Amino acid sequence: MKDVHDLSDRMHEECGVFGAFIPDASDPVTQAIGRLVYYGIYSLQHRGQESAGIVVSSGGSLKQHRGMGLVSEVFSDQLLDGMRGRAAIGHVRYSTAGSSNIANAQPLMAQSRLGEIAIGHNGNLVNAPVIRDLLEDAGVMFQTSSDSEVILNLIARGARYGMRKALLDAMRAIQGAFSLVVLTEDSLIAVRDPKGIRPLCLGTLGGATIVASESCALDAVGAEYLRDVEPGEIVIVNAQGLESLKQHEQTEQQVCSFEYIYFSRPDSEVDQVSVYAARMEAGRILHRESPVEADVVSGVPESGIVAAHGFAEAAGVPFAMTLIKNKYVGRSFIAPTQELRERAVSVKLNVLRANVKGKRVVLVDDSIVRGTTMRRLVTMLRRAGAREVHIRIASPPVQYPCYFGMDYPSRAELAGARSLEEVRNMIGADTLAHLSLGGLHRSLGGSGRYCTGCLTGVYPVAAPMEQEKNQLEIPFEETADGALPPAAARTEVPQAIRDRDNL
């Protein structure tokens, strides 16, 4: 059963992570670190609305609170007043690996030889099932269905050899997309995958170090942006200062292009590229590539608005709001049938008739996934009196599934797997056009350092093929070098996989 938030027929948000470390135990901020992290994850609420949690390191132990729902629903003033300490991490979650229940809510915690460890994870591992089987063969008991617990157990088991080695060994074993915040009793740790698929940045607030999925979270707590965590980098922050560890192998950054198209807030900068500027430029390029005669340009709230402004500016056509979003339709509004779910689109979005009636309307959105919601929006605009409805999409067609943390349907359900004319007929638009792949790259500054797997079928990291799994299922043995499977048993990365319908 899905609610109005989910029926928007878009890829769903991933997760958001936030962390803070205060070196001076006498700093007054230690008395309010829970609130500091609360405001940080509140500003990342767009990245996940299913659950939220905070873990605080206080007096040699970790204190945790997690709950299902929005950040404002999970935490009360009384809870936050009791969250005091020098370090804390927070997490907001949308489930992409693991079901939506309180057991999978993060941050997750575990015991290790070095004490308690907590972890918050944004992303997806492609080899989590293989490593999970190896760990279970070695006697590890899992409490959740989340791939994040796989990372947590790898780190916890390797901690006897020291936290630095445990972190490096865990990073060498796991494959996929991961931005992590890890909390121990005396340290805050930030980790980013070797391709930098998921964003992570560092900031400073007085003497405190802040870690966040997006720079907008730094702004929310008054922190100053310092830099992005580099691909493959481990940052350890404790009373001795900030230490950076890197894997020996060369890394090539390929941040997810949909961070700019859809996921990130427009007031964020991801790897020093402004999300707002990228969306504006995408809209301008979209007009140059696919112009159309129109009376008004509009955008689908929220992520289509900025690109629509860019399109209108380039076209010299007035921008106007045509769809008004009801901001008070929350996740508790549940429609029990598919028909009611589709009709409920008009509860969340309503047409401003005065800006539509008798006009040729260009409606700009960030993407089309299945196409069912776009069909409903086109119908609403026509019923409101629109003379023509032209759909412009500020990204190339989504043709392939994503297994790095975005919740896409199978390829068979994706509108982008059909011809453009089929999709145009399905949604009922007069014309339909997408931004080209080259246009997307130009909007991001002309660099090719982005993951476009869901658009092209070429991924920066490929999932292990199922038929390879048997040769990987060997007992997990601890060695003198640390708690990792032998090198021969570690997942090898096959060639990029196209057209994986069942992912």
Explain the overall architecture.
With 503 residues, this protein is an alpha+beta fold. It has 2 domains: 14-254, 4-Layer Sandwich (Glutamine Phosphoribosylpyrophosphate, subunit 1, domain 1), CATH 3.60.20; 270-447, Rossmann fold, CATH 3.40.50. Helix content is 27%, strand content 23%. It is built from 17 helices and 23 strands. Mean pLDDT is 84; it is low at 1-8, 331-336 and 465-503.
According to CATH, what is the class of the largest domain?
Answer: Alpha Beta
Sheet of most strands = 7 strands, antiparallel
Q: How far do the termini sit from each other?
A: 21 Å
CATH architecture of the largest domain: 4-Layer Sandwich
Fraction of helical residues: 25-40%
For this entry, give a set of tags.
503 residues; alpha+beta; Glutamine Phosphoribosylpyrophosphate, subunit 1, domain 1; Rossmann fold; 2 domains; seven-stranded antiparallel β-sheet; 17 helices; disordered C terminus
Topology of helices and strands:
Elements: E1 15-21, H1 33-42, E2 51-58, E3 61-68, H2 71-74, H3 77-81, E4 87-93, E5 108-112, E6 115-122, H4 128-137, H5 148-158, H6 163-173, E7 179-183, E8 188-192, E9 201-205, E10 208-212, H7 215-220, E11 224-228, E12 233-238, E13 241-246, E14 255-256, H8 258-263, E15 269-270, E16 273-274, H9 275-289, E17 296-299, H10 305-315, E18 323-325, H11 338-343, H12 345-348, E19 349-351, E20 360-365, H13 372-383, E21 388-393, H14 420-427, E22 431-434, H15 437-443, E23 450-451, H16 453-456, H17 469-472
Parallel strand pairs: 14-23, 17-20, 20-21, 21-22
Antiparallel strand pairs: 1-4, 1-10, 2-3, 2-4, 5-6, 6-7, 7-8, 8-12, 9-10, 9-11, 12-13, 15-16, 18-19
Helix pairs in contact: 4-5, 5-6, 9-10, 9-15
